[in-house]
Amino acid sequence: MIITATHINYYHICHRKLWLFSRGIQMEHTSEVVEEAKLIHESSYPQRASKYTELDLGVAKIDFYDEKNKVVHEIKKSRKMETAHQWQVKYYLLLLRRAGVPEATAILEYPTLKKTMEVFLSDDDVHYLEEVEHEIEQITRQEKVPEKINKSFCKKCSYYDLCWVE
Ligand code: SF4
């Protein structure tokens, strides 16, 4: 199975979301939240596309990579899913390490909050992510969809209608 940074992100949010996504059930286009996030992404730093490189790692595409300083820049809308954001970005760093760039670091950027956060990859993080990769394979192989989690953020999830609307 090919594991992407999106799998890593969803693993840290909801295993049901991870399972649905891994089965090719995608509803992102119906989500206003996703549209809003895309807009922030496109409008926050209009000059950034010329400043940074788009890096295709095969299983992940990094939109803004500072090649000179080896820094991944990742824009997010809010800090509510910060743990998932951090592990997604750490996974980029792991992929870069596997591609022969072990010294890369990252910056999570929240333009609407005017906040940034530096992210690093430790050896412990690498071990943890390897375990997560293994668990993701197990979860996505299950025949039955994992249970709903009923969290406040379900309302903003792109699978909300699928999970909660009769
Ligand atoms: S709506 Fe809630 S339970 Fe359903 S996939 Fe999303 S986060 Fe998981």
Description:
Belongs to the CRISPR-associated exonuclease Cas4 family. One of its GO terms (molecular function) is iron-sulfur cluster binding. The chain is an alpha+beta fold. Helices cover 43% and strands 16% of the residues. The protein is built from seven helices and five strands. Helix 1 (5-11) packs antiparallel against helix 5 (82-98). The two termini are 32 Å apart. The model has no long low-confidence stretch (mean pLDDT 88).
Short synopsis of the structure:
Helices cover 43% and strands 16% of the residues. By secondary structure, it is α+β, with helices and mostly antiparallel strands. Bound molecules: iron/sulfur cluster (SF4).
List the helices and strands and how they pair.
Blueprint (H helix, E strand, L loop, with lengths): L4 H7 L3 H8 L9 H12 L4 H4 L1 E4 L4 E6 L4 E5 L6 H17 L6 E6 L4 E5 L3 H19 L18 H5 L2
Parallel strand pairs: 3-4
Antiparallel strand pairs: 1-2, 2-3, 4-5
Helix pairs in contact: 1-2, 1-5, 2-6
The structure holds iron/sulfur cluster.
Iron/sulfur cluster binds next to helix 2 and helix 7.
